[in-house]
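Q: I'm a student working through a structural biology exercise. My instructor gave each of us a protein and asked us to get a predicted structure, then write a short paragraph describing it. Mine is GTPase ObgE. I'm not confident about reading structure output yet, so if you can add a plain explanation after the tokens, that would really help. Here is the sequence I was given:
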Amino acid sequence: MLMDEIIISVKAGNGGRGCESYFRRKDHKTVPDGGDGGSGGDIIIRSDIRTGSLVPLKSKRLFEAESGTLGGSNNRYGQKGNDLILKVPCGTTVFDETHGLLLRDLKEEGDEVIAVKGGRGGYGNHGGRQATRGEEGKSLDLRFVLSIISDIVLIGLPNSGKTTLLKALTGAHVEPAEYPFATKQPCLGTYEGEIRELRVCDLPALYGRSEEGKGLGNAFLRHVKRVKLIFMVLDPINSFAKDLQEGYHILLKELGQYDQSYLNIPRLVLINKMDLAEAQKRYSEQSLKAEEPQFEISALKKTGLETLMAHVTQQLTERLA
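A: Happy to help. First, here is the predicted structure for GTPase ObgE. I'll explain a few features afterward.
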């Protein structure tokens, strides 16, 4: 199961204690020569393309970096504690839950943020200073929110055939079901085109009151944030809308109510299930007014998909040129 949000506790390493030491010279005078303690390790959050889930972060209650070591005599400094690097999927946003702050949005491979700096090492008594304890490493609660990075996202009403479409396009190991809200979490697949590969994400179904938390709610719409193209999957015989026009407006409304900026993402309208005589009949009786290009398809029979994906590949290639 996809975990797209988690809160964990972290603690940076403590600074090592400074050393109080004296060197006796040949003239019997004593000289302070205690070295400083080493700094504690930092807590670093790094995005990693090979990390596909936040689930490994459930393994501990508290993640701690290593403390610095003690200073030594003869002005020897303590070693810095090892940093603790926590790897998260690309597309993870890191928040300081303790203080209500955004730390960083980790979009690309290798992006990182130092969430907590390690405690400073204590002073040794060299140079006549007073030896001190190391600084305590700070603790924080961190919240990670994952927004899946994909090229295309599928949205639609219940039973619109999104999962069948994902399987037809990508060969993803998903099993379509004939009951509403069968897709309970985002599902991913890769379309292998002649020019480029495209990452496709199928989201759980929306309907007229998703923003009120009905059905499966709409929290999963966070995964629309980074997509390049939205497929609005409609079908003429869907029981969750009286006609295609109402279904179209429901999807637009849910997108806009979650995040108005989503309405600026390019969209295509797919009229699915056109292999069925009843769907063809109802489609001929309806008039869908939509600003987006429309494609008649059958995800089950895989008809119309070649034309659709040729258009998509050209559109995305032109945008990235």
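A: Here are two points you could use in your paragraph. The chain has two domains: 5-146, 152-320. The chain has four helices and 16 strands. It's a good idea to check both against the output above yourself.
Q: Great, thank you!
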